[in-house]
From TrEMBL:
Keywords: ATP-binding, Nucleotide-binding. The lineage of its organism: Bacteria, Bacillati, Actinomycetota, Actinomycetes, Kitasatosporales. This is ABC transporter ATP-binding protein.
């Protein structure tokens, strides 16, 4: 957490982003006006149930969206003030890797199975920095040490399948860090790992983020992991941001019923045996999002206006927004 390094100019600013998927069954509106900002050196956690548009938004930022069937139908993605959506593919490629990098959930399918880890890490330096093989290999070992892989010198020639899941995830983190990008997007980076390994990998990511003062977007469906790591949270539902706030404000008192439901679904060690509140119902079909507030069919507080008017992002405080007509009641209730 490095809120003190927060500069005035945002590192990344997503503005009113819209993404659709045109499929045989119809048009799925996956992202419907998402806006979020990440400052230099800051960690933003993006939270929401599966299917809420977290990954699609990230893919649009990275320029790796599946087009077609995907299509960006509106919005801007400003990286250090430059709109990425207006860039040519080769200009975009330069920003990927050196400017921003992504860590995926599944290291095994993201790493190349037939190249040694040292070759894959070294490749970054050969391609982007024009280094010779030997120097690049030394850099690879250095990176492996940095992400806590024991015996890096001996293991640099091994292949991805020879490493455990946790170690592979560390290798992916090393790949992402190689060129010291200003922004890292980690999309559910620990979801596929055992619980104890999850905590270790999350600790590593948080430590490196703060040492290198990188901007980090941490995508997760698990509110439990973000409290110690994030500066701010953006909660997504049906392709929209429904609440955004400094992390401590959200834990103290959520200003949106959906966030409240997510918080009450976290298992707590000190309350064993307590019935877990799970948000009832399912997220909406993105081909047929309900009118008004998309959360209304599942919301315990829904009233007539919720079924009619889409709630704007109301200002709760200068640092905080909620897309709920009844945010005040939620906050104080
Ligand atoms: N390649 C694709 N083809 C068709 N639809 C897609 C594709 N990728 C994503 N979608 C649609 O976008 C929705 C949001 O996906 P995603 O951003 O991956 O959700 P999550 O919040 O779980 O990361 C999905 O539920 C799906 O309807
Ligand atoms: S706007 Fe209405 S339906 Fe939506 S979250 Fe608020 S109270 Fe619930
Ligand atoms: Mg996802």
């Amino acid at each position: 957490m490095t809120t003190e390094t927060r500069a005035d100019a945002p590192l990344l600013e997503v503005r009113d982003l819209h993404v659709e998927f045109r499929t045989r069954d119809g048009v799925a509106k996956a992202v419907n006006g998402v806006a979020y900002t990440v400052f230099e050196g800051e960690t933003l956690a993006v939270l929401g149930e599966s299917g809420s548009g977290k990954s699609v938004t990230a893919q649009a930022v990275m320029g790796i969206l599946d087009i077609p069937p995907g299509k960006i139908t509106g919005g801007e993605i400003l990286f250090r003030g430059q709109d990425l959506l207006t860039l040519k593919e080769d200009e975009r490629q330069k920003i990927r890797g050196a400017g921003m990098a992504m860590i995926f959930q599944d290291a095994l399918s993201s790493l190349n199975p037939v190249l040694s880890v040292g070759d894959q890490l070294g490749e970054m330096f050969v391609v982007h920095r024009g280094m010779k093989r030997k120097a690049a290999r030394a850099k690879a070992v250095e990176l492996m040490e940095r992400v806590g892989i024991p015996g890096a010198k001996e293991r640099v020639g091994q292949y991805p399948h020879q490493f455990s899941g946790g170690m592979r995830q560390r290798i992916m983190i090393a790949m992402a860090l190689a060129l010291e990008p200003a922004l890292i997007i980690a999309d559910e980076p620990t979801t596929a790992l055992d619980v104890t390994v999850q905590a270790q990998v999350m600790d590593l990511l948080a430590t490196l983020q703060s040492e290198l003062a990188m901007g980090l977007i941490l995508i997760t469906h698990d509110l439990g992991v973000v409290a110690d790591v994030a500066d701010r949270i953006a909660v997504m539902y049906a392709g929209r941001i429904v609440e955004t706030a400094p992390v401590h404000d959200i834990y103290k008192a959520p200003a949106h019923p959906y966030t409240k439901g997510l918080l009450e679904s976290i298992p707590r060690l000190d309350q064993k045996g307590r019935e877990l509140y799970a948000i009832k119902g399912l997220p909406p079909n993105l081909m047929d999002i309900p009118p008004g507030c998309a959360f209304n069919p599942r919301c315990p507080m829904a009233r007539d206006i919720c079924r009619r008017d889409v709630p704007p992002l109301y200002e709760v405080s200068p640092e905080r927004r909620s897309a709920c007509h009844f945010w005040e009641e939620t906050l104080h209730g």
